[in-house]
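Forwarding the complex inputs:
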Amino acid sequence: MKKLFLNLIIVAGLAVAMTACYPGGAEYTNDTDIILTHYDPEYNFNDVNTYYISDSIEHIVDDGDEPNYKYDQDIISDLSNNFDALGWEQFDLNDTLNGELPDVAIVVSAAEVTVYNVYSYPWYGYWGWGWYKSSDYYGYPGYGWGYPWYGGGTYVSTYTTGTVLWRLFDPEYVSEADSTINLAWMGVLNGVMGSGTSNTKGRITEGIDQAFKQSAYLKGE
Amino acid sequence: MKKYILIIIVFIFSASASYSQGTSLYSFDYTMGMGVGSMGDYIKKASFRGLTFEGRGFVSDNVSVGALVSWATFYEARENGTYVHEDYTTLFGNQYRYINVYPMLAQAHYYFGIDPHKTRVYLGGGIGTYSVNKETQIGVWALEENKWHFGVSPEVGVLLPINYSTMINISLRYNYAVKTKNAPDYSWLGLSIGFAWGN
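Prediction (whole assembly, two chains):
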């Protein structure tokens, strides 16, 4: 019995020793940078020729915190460059006066809160939207976002500090009946605007470029 | 999981000690592993973190039956990998891939030679359950898959006597955990080196 007990002690001791050297994972802040894209496989991106992108970014911050606007124009510019590279033409807002709509519109957000749940934020009527869908109202106040990929199993809904995300939708597919803006594409850069990180501008550019690179369906492929 | 392993360890001791022949053999080994097939595609690096503990009771001079419990961790970090989920979601970033395997098997072995004080080669195998925990960490998220699999494990090994009751055990084992409804199959080669002792 004494020998049995001793053997068990040896087994348990060595098992604990092996567990102690369990392999590491991420070590540095930028090891956790993520570029995530979703799309609606039912949407035909071949038909897209024009896009509208707001000239400002929705900032989501904790109460009492000041938004960081430093990279707004870089983000808008990087996104526009990539949409232009797809052969899409940026929509002229003056055309809305003639009742014309862009094929798709893009809304950009920067979440600077500790934990951000992407599915819990509806349309945000920020001042820079600039496009009146009709003469009656401004943007889509009170509308929720429709995520066609939602519910398909594993998905990511919460993001940590320093997330940039953009939502692309077709105004033709905004449902007034249930106040839902159905998305065709969404991109997320998680971690790029985290505190204590370096080369933020470069990481944003690289991240946006990668989001387009991994979304070949935007070119109809 | 820990509870199951503890039960198996106690079972190994009690089962192998109860045989009427009066001889039993225990071994405790350091185990290295290398994934093959789809598991090798997922993690290409060899595993150097593994332990195997087994007990065998002799039912004749050159045949033993017993049980085994083992653990191994396979790990690989991949920079800037792409992970596609159900076609419409793509995650790009550094990936940290883990597979933890916990075989718990009933075993039988045949020994060439009957003198326990001489080098003996043995052939055998196991059959039983494999608990497999697969985890892909991307950024601050983890995609996890924990499943129990049925599996088999052919083995070839050698016992090298050191003194009257202690031997060095070296064995090469192929593990195959069959696929389940929601999980793929896993297969890997394990090389174990350790001590065996008997009474």
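Strands of chain A lie at 34-39, 50-53, 58-60, 89-90, 104-111, 115-117, 144-146, 158-160, 163-175, 180-190.
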